[in-house]
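Hey all, sorry for the wall of text incoming. These are the four entities for the joint prediction.
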Amino acid sequence: MRFEALTIKDIAKALGLSTSTVSRALRDSYEISPETKKLVLEYAEKNNYHPNPIALSLKERRSRSIGVIVCEIANSFFSQTINGIESIAYNNGYNVIISQSRESFDREMINLQYLTSRSIDGLIISVSTETRDFSFLKELHERGMPIVFFDRIVDEIETHKVIVDNYKSAYDATTHLVKNGYQHIAAVSNAAYLSITKERLAGYRAALADNGIAVNEDLIKHCHHGGMILVEVEEAVNELLQAPEKPDAILTTSDKLTTGCFRILKSKGINVPAEMGLVGFSNSDLTELLDPPLTIIKQPAFEMGEIAMNLLLQLIESKRPVKEFETRVLASELITRGSTVAKKAKPKTLA
Amino acid sequence: MRFEALTIKDIAKALGLSTSTVSRALRDSYEISPETKKLVLEYAEKNNYHPNPIALSLKERRSRSIGVIVCEIANSFFSQTINGIESIAYNNGYNVIISQSRESFDREMINLQYLTSRSIDGLIISVSTETRDFSFLKELHERGMPIVFFDRIVDEIETHKVIVDNYKSAYDATTHLVKNGYQHIAAVSNAAYLSITKERLAGYRAALADNGIAVNEDLIKHCHHGGMILVEVEEAVNELLQAPEKPDAILTTSDKLTTGCFRILKSKGINVPAEMGLVGFSNSDLTELLDPPLTIIKQPAFEMGEIAMNLLLQLIESKRPVKEFETRVLASELITRGSTVAKKAKPKTLA
DNA sequence: ATCGTTACCGGGAACGATTGCGTAAATAAA
DNA sequence: TTTATTTACGCAATCGTTCCCGGTAACGAT
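and here's what came out:
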């Protein structure tokens, strides 16, 4: 069963007017006399009239809804980003349809097709760790769909993008490890072709180089499911522990990997930070309650969401095709805590 | 700028047919000759035709989208429930519009009005901890909007509901505390009028009574923002610590309260579980990595979402008004860990 | 030759809203 | 008084789709 909403036609019939007059009265057109306006407005108010958004969408050829695709909403970074997106969206009369790729290319494609077939006005996306084929996104973009990338961006598609300074973030975190006396620093990262992986590992390599430490490729591991499957993190950690040059610290490049590595280390009874330092990207507010509290790189997720949505609004509401695109690069925050206090170093802070 | 999609009219013009014929050919009507069908289908396929969902919505007077309102998606319990909802929704061609009340009645109302004005076909909701006035929901329900409640349900509205056995969950958790030698057990809960608060506190009280422990009302605290504001949790804990009969354990009745209490206790340097045992409802997978690992009551959140969505589909797709409603009560799981191992008790398990 | 069937297809009215255009009456200007 | 102009409203097209009516052939049966 369905509940029937009041339409403009109902009002017209009830008041003996035409639908045009009612429509114009409701939109406060100058063509309508004050008396008629009052009549219509009062009737509409009293009977709780709301314009049918679907009819409007059909007429205006816009749905006033945007799509957001992230790998998972349970991830603190993404849920915070979504909060930022929503806050701007709602203020501008847009609603947000969220879908999750769960780090799978196939699911991302399905969601993408679903969203576009639901005629969204724009798209904000952080691609899955599996995604290497951007042809669908590219085609979508070329056909005129406004798209904003954030976090995991796609270099080959020219549009607005929002990221943190991944290079510097990883550089600083790695430097922090070195300064605390760690010598053999490993990295556990996402798939190699992912933008955040490339940029963060570049920062990691540079920091090592600048500190006179040779980069050991054996100490760089990739998790192709981004840590969604704990087993792959376990394998990465196992390989590190069995490496000829066993690492004494790990840098993890995303939320799921950070907690995943920590979980594995703990289950193996490896002492953090004494045996193994750990610093990673994370936006979870529980990391400070862990044992030991984790040193993390925290991204301004909410703000990133706000910016992404504002940029998308620019694209959607621009009259002419936008040709000038910007990539907003924000600063992240390194929060040093107990997981990176090495025995051999003089601790900077004690959590 | 907007990208123009292919319409049925375009196909009709290109093929020299009428829109009716094209429409029928696409829907494989018996009235259309195999040749024409083939012609239309091939043209549609080649030119990537997709029916306009908005036009369909207008015609069919249904949007094929449902609304979900929770207090926040960053909460593990809710994000898991949403995953369950989505999985069923997508399989049935529905999309999900999520919005967050952030435990505020006002925001819940705004979201509710927004969602209904966007003509959703149905609603799944867990009300905010502030919500006492259900008149809007009631009116919506009476006007025929299909609604399913989960977690925080509304007794006075008769429709499908999905919950865990809150009474038993709290009873078992409290009993667990008693069996571990805790004597003065406090409860930190949400607003008193909330369904989960009432049911869980009833279980708590009964467990104390059954174990011959008098219920001390001073040890029952309510957080009216559900722990969204840490300060209110801190106040509750402070009051407990200053109570004449200082508690030696706390039962928390929701995710945010559990981690909130733990955070406060830790910041005060109070030893858990020796000085203060802690058990609470939580679906976060990080609780086992905390120091100490938390004993939690875990709800089958994903499954709850699946069930809620299936029940909603029943309501939406029923031809006649549904009169028979069911309340699905699922079992929760008590996972005992380090936060409830008291000195004076013989520990059951060591995490 | 006429009728009834069957097979195919098109016209046009919905769904709910907006909007360009036309027009009647009322008023102002000539 | 005649002509312009303004005021205030209705008609009908439009958005993309479906579906109720038709209608027109072709064909076999009477």
